[in-house]
Specification:
Blueprint: H1 2-7, E1 21-23, E2 35-41, E3 45-51, E4 56-61, H2 67-77, E5 82-86, H3 99-120, E6 124-129, H4 149-158, H5 181-188, H6 206-223, H7 226-229, E7 235-239, E8 244-249, E9 254-258, E10 266-268, H8 270-278, H9 282-289, E11 292-294, H10 298-312, H11 319-322, H12 325-348
Parallel strand pairs: 4-5, 5-6, 7-10
Antiparallel strand pairs: 1-2, 2-3, 3-4, 7-8, 8-9, 10-11
Length: about 350
């Protein structure tokens, strides 16, 4: 991330530790008393609290915070005044057919939002992250299950929880009465999702997909013991836009084209499959983009996703990486709540 920010021209950085309240740097020229607090959630997400003398604003975005973690956060911060959060679908695990799973997941997100609102005992929740739509031909099916900001406002209101809806440019004074009706009308007047443009994706050649896979497999073999990789069974993937079926096995590092008659585990078009192999974050992005279907061997694929997530998060399990100062410090910082968090992510990872 630091390299990415430097390429954009930023110069000053401070990586925030897990669960530590940090004063804003004096070197930035800031003279106030505000502090920040970062809660590392899972391997990829973080929540951020901004604290001043009067209020604590907690930006959870899409971090899946469990009930037990809410208690940890309240213990660290003493109180939280405002929760800012995602309110709709931002990923999908690809179960086919999607309707029952996506409908249940959308309801679960609102239920979780209510739970975190209660557990953090906030004065108000601001639904501020989910103003997106799935915009490719192969993932637009998700949109008809999405929660709207009106759905969110109605749900929290039914639960007798204060929901503050802000349209871009609106202001809110913490603790003051707020009328969300105008913002809701403006959101409801936006074009319907089926009126928006959708992007067809050009195919990627099979040899490019194979090259990306070989590079990824070599990197995984460097970072993880062979005995661990041997526990992962083969995965077969139908690539509909190439009319090909492939199979890979990380234990051997092999990938091959196989008979189209072979029942596939997954169905993925060529470009998102290439992207998944090409970048350390690629398979995580595949889940976020919902550009695949999971047809069978769910548990086997879930173990692969866990490995890809650890790799992207820099959690390597070969002995030469396990006892570095950085990894030991990481494990030590994540022991409180770490097991609970892992179980929560496993249970809620649709």
């Amino acid at each position: 991330m630091i390299a990415a920010f430097k390429s954009l021209g930023y110069q000053n950085f401070q990586l925030l530790p897990h669960r530590i309240i940090v004063p804003l740097a004096a070197s930035s020229g800031y003279r106030g008393t505000a502090r920040v607090y970062c809660y590392h959630a899972g391997l990829m997400d973080s929540a951020l609290a901004v604290i001043d003398d009067d209020n604590v604003v907690f930006n959870a975005n899409d971090a899946r915070i469990s009930t037990a973690e809410c208690q940890i956060i309240r213990g660290d911060l003493r109180n939280v005044d405002i929760l800012m959060s995602q309110f709709s679908l931002a990923a999908y695990a690809g179960f086919d057919p999607p309707a029952p799973h996506l409908s249940a997941r959308a309801k679960q997100i609102l239920s979780n939002l209510s739970t975190v609102h209660n557990e953090l005992n906030v004065k108000a929740t601001i639904p501020f992250a989910s103003f997106i739509y799935f915009s490719s031909d192969d993932n637009k099916y998700v949109n008809r299950f999405a929660n709207t900001v009106q759905d969110t406002y109605d749900h929290l209101t039914r639960e007798q929880q204060n929901c503050v809806v802000l349209y871009p440019g609106d202001n809110y004074q913490v603790g003051a009465p707020h009328d969300s009706s105008l913002a809701l009308r403006r959101f409801n007047a936006l074009p319907a999702l089926d009126e928006l443009p959708y992007t067809p994706t050009p195919p990627t050649r099979l040899d490019e997909i194979f090259d990306a896979y070989y590079a990824m497999a070599a990197q995984l073999h460097d970072h993880y013991p062979k005995v661990l990789l041997s526990l992962l069974g083969p995965i077969s993937i139908r690539i509909p836009d190439l009319d090909k079926t492939i199979r890979f096995r990380l234990a051997t590092g092999r990938i091959e084209a196989i008979s189209a008659a072979t029942p596939p585990d997954l169905m993925i078009n060529s470009q998102p499959l290439w992207f998944g192999f090409k970048f350390p974050f690629g398979m995580q992005t595949l889940g976020v983009s919902a550009r695949f279907k999971l047809l069978r061997h769910f548990r086997r694929w879930k173990l692969h996703r866990l490995l890809f997530s650890m790799n992207n998060g820099g959690v390597y399990l070969k002995l030469k990486y396990l006892f570095t100062p950085q990894f030991v410090a990481y494990v030590r910082s994540r022991i409180p709540g770490g097991l609970t968090q892992a179980l929560h992510y496993y249970r809620t990872s649709l």
